[in-house]
Write a structure and sequence with these properties.
With about 290 residues, the chain is an alpha/beta fold. Helices cover about 35% and strands about 20% of the residues. The protein has ten helices and eight strands. It has helices spanning about 25-30, 40-45, 45-50, 55-60, 105, 145-160, 195-205, 210-220, 225-230, 270-280, and strands at about 15, 85-95, 100, 115-125, 130-135, 165-175, 180-190, 255. The strands form two sheets. The protein has a five-stranded mixed sheet. Strands 2-4-3 form a three-stranded antiparallel sheet. Helix 1 (about 25-30) packs across helix 8 (about 210-220) and helix 4 (about 55-60) packs across helix 8. The protein is globular and about 60 Å long. The protein starts with 12 loop residues before the first strand and ends in a 6-residue tail after the last helix. The model is unreliable at about 1-5 and about 80-85 (pLDDT under 50).
Length: about 290
């Protein structure tokens, strides 16, 4: 159990991972060999994590086909301006070394058959609405609460898209480690790609997103850091994410509150949708 009052404080961030710019980069990082023998991300009970390790990787790759509630929402005049918008996109670069193999180039005998994706600034038309959604929460939070909140968030995010806007969605890991803080962010949805609703639902609504993938990412860090995070139960509250957790170039993001125990609005899907509507209205995203 966390100490009283810790949800209201913000320790100084000492441990911060480089941003993961794409969903594939996030999955690849989670699949790296772990550096500690008692990795809970790989060995955790599926009843706690919501899925086994291989099932989690399948869901991360193919998406989670959970049914979203139908919503009718009046989208507000968003603060992100229309016209030409600066955003960050991943541009592939071919070389003799890289993180992925271009099979076609390899079979053709091309020496530059390896691909790396480099983040670059690009200009797009329209509106890009950026969200940072905390993925961390207490280990006793029930699956149904996580699912209800995530499905409601996904449904209202989709309403922003139906209104004609592009979305950029980041998942944030943050929490207290002893007297300091650890943080990391991964981009789930880029505004430069079509919306993958199955991926969005998995990232926001499935407990394995945190309990398998985010935990595995930290357990693949150098052994000293991995042991520190693991010995602190993968962090204590506050689990909030903050603007300065994001990389430069993400403009005017909407920061959503972290999931807290005792928030009764997440007990049912109907109340979760109402709670998310209130959050989105407070952020100026929906018309009340």
């Amino acid at each position: 159990m966390s100490a009283p009052g810790t949800y209201e404080s913000r320790p100084e961030t000492r441990y911060e991972l480089p941003p993961l710019w794409s969903w594939q980069e996030f999955i690849d990082r989670a699949k790296k060999p772990v550096t500690i023998p008692n990795s809970s991300g790989r060995r955790e009970d599926p009843a706690f994590a919501g899925a086994g390790w291989e099932e989690t990787l399948r869901l991360a790759r193919d998406g989670w086909s959970a049914r979203l509630p139908e919503v009718e929402a009046d989208v507000a005049a968003l603060r992100t301006g229309s016209g030409r918008v600066r955003t960050t996109v991943l541009v592939p670069r071919w070389d003799v070394t890289g993180s992925e193999v271009d099979i076609g180039a390899y079979l053709a005998g091309e020496p530059e058959c390896m691909i790396d994706a480099e983040p670059q600034q690009a200009t797009t038309h329209g509106r890009v609405v950026s969200f940072l959604i905390p993925a961390s929460y207490e280990n006793f939070i029930p699956h149904q609460v996580i699912r209800n909140r995530g499905l409601a968030l996904s449904a209202l995010c989709s309403s922003i898209i139906m209104a004609g806007h592009s979305v950029e969605i980041w998942s944030g890991f943050g929490g207290r480690v002893a007297d300091t803080r650890a943080s990391a962010v991964a981009r789930v949805i880029s505004p430069a790609e079509p919306l993958d609703m199955g991926r969005l639902i998995f990232a926001l609504a499935h407990p394995a997103m945190l309990r398998r993938l985010w935990h595995s990412i930290w357990e693949g860090e150098p052994e000293e850091l991995a042991r520190l995070i693991h010995s602190n139960r993968h962090c204590y509250p506050p689990f909030s994410s903050y603007r300065d957790d994001l990389p430069d170039g993400v403009e005017d993001p909407y920061i959503l509150p972290a999931l807290k125990p005792g928030d009764d609005q997440w007990n049912t899907l109907e109340s979760s949708l109402a709670g998310c509507r209130e959050i989105f209205a407070d952020l100026g995203l929906l018309v009340e």
